[in-house]
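Re: [ENG-882] Designed sequences occasionally contain unexpected residues at chain ends

Forwarding the minimal case from QA. Structure tokens:
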């Protein structure tokens, strides 16, 4: 991912905040955030959704043997 060099835009303030999708979407709708990185959430008439990148989702676990079938239960 390419990041913007702050020296080129000294008057732009960027703050990163973590949260769950629903909270971030609510904050955008309430104008508390200008934008957010979230997983896809469907369509909303007041939000523009742009795919920025695709991320690989992985499952991690302790070193005990865990089968995929046991996780589906």
């Amino acid at each position: 991912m390419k990041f913007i060099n702050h020296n080129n835009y000294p008057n732009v303030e960027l703050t990163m905040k973590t949260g769950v999708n629903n909270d971030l979407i609510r904050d955008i709708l309430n104008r508390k955030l200008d934008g957010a990185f979230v997983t896809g959430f469907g369509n909303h008439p007041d939000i523009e959704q742009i795919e920025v990148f695709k991320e690989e989702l992985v499952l991690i676990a302790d070193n005990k043997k865990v089968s995929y079938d046991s996780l589906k239960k």
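QA comment: On inspection the terminal residues look reasonable. The chain has a mean pLDDT of 83. Proposing we downgrade this to a documentation issue.
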